[in-house]
Design goal:
With 156 residues, this protein is mainly α. Helix content is 50%, strand content 4%. It is built from 4 helices and 2 strands. Helix 2 packs across helix 4 and helix 3 packs antiparallel against helix 4. The relative contact order is 0.11.
Length: 156
Amino acid sequence: MKSWKKIFFAAAIIFTVGFCTNAFAQVGTETYNVYPDNPQGYENLWNCMTRKLGRGVSNVAFGVLEIPIQIYNVNFNEGGIAACTYGLISGLGYFVVREVVGVVEIVTFPIPLPDCPNDPYNGAGAGYGPILKPEWIITPETNLYNFVYPYTPTNM
């Protein structure tokens, strides 16, 4: 009897993933948005909710990376002594904020929040956009030592 439950659960997951995927037209290595009125990642309601859930899980799982990122930023801008004191305290503060925002985004992922537009650069009103900016902890601008985004001539 247990094998039927496993088979049903696997089939339900495969059906859900297959049914909810979004179609993209691809030419060469460029990916084009099928819905040009919406920014990349916010094409439909399913993408909005899963992006918000993923952002929340990322914030909770990797929020601790705010500490070395802030230490590095302060060290780069103001020097080593400031990095040891102010950078550490700033990193701890950003870490706590990132964790709280991550929990809020996980809990409220199916609900659009006010003042969180889907387009993080333009727009207003309720939506599934980021509460905290930058949206992700490590961005191409904060990619220390090419750890997450590899340095290539195309992303200088």
